[in-house]
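Practice problem: predict the structure.
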Amino acid sequence: MSIAILGGTGPQGRGLALRFARAGTPVVLGSRDGGRAQGIADELNAQLEGAATISGEPLREAVAAADEMVILAVPYSAHDATLEAIRDLLPGKILIDIVVPLDDGDPKRVDMPAAGSATEAAQALLGEEVPVVGALHNVSAAILNQLDHSINCDVLVCGNDLAAKEKVIELIRQLGVEAYNAGPAVNARCIEAITPILIRLNISKKVPFTHAGIRIWAPDA
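Answer:
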């Protein structure tokens, strides 16, 4: 099963492409510039040894090439416009929205849209016939791109379609991480808002680490 990653030339998209391809899932990077997408794909393939192939295409061709799942990894400023450009190709597919609406002037703050979250905005724009699943909001791009490090967090998954969420959870678990059903799309308001908190902690001089993630821990036995 191949997946498309739109915005795959950015740090988050590149890291996810590397991780999924290494796990055996073919990846198509989508960008407004198809040539740039293929150039990035060639760079990423050079880092992999015998893993699934990463290819690059213009946005619409990338969506068409995906068997079922399309990951949206663009900056929030391009979120709605990108969805408008591909919405007619999405029926029959699952959109995985990983976008966080960070404040333009301060990435330590969110600037939520009127819909409440990026995930909800995508669902409202696409309509209920296209299941939108919010996921992978809190994973460090730096960690994703360091293939010699395991991903240091769990993943919270939300959306209104249970079957779609279960498929996304199964996909994410291919990366060697735990993923949890965190409820309906409205809960994306909380999940997306965790990202600027992590950014604040990771850049604080009073905190002795960077690129932190979150984990769901069981009680002590």
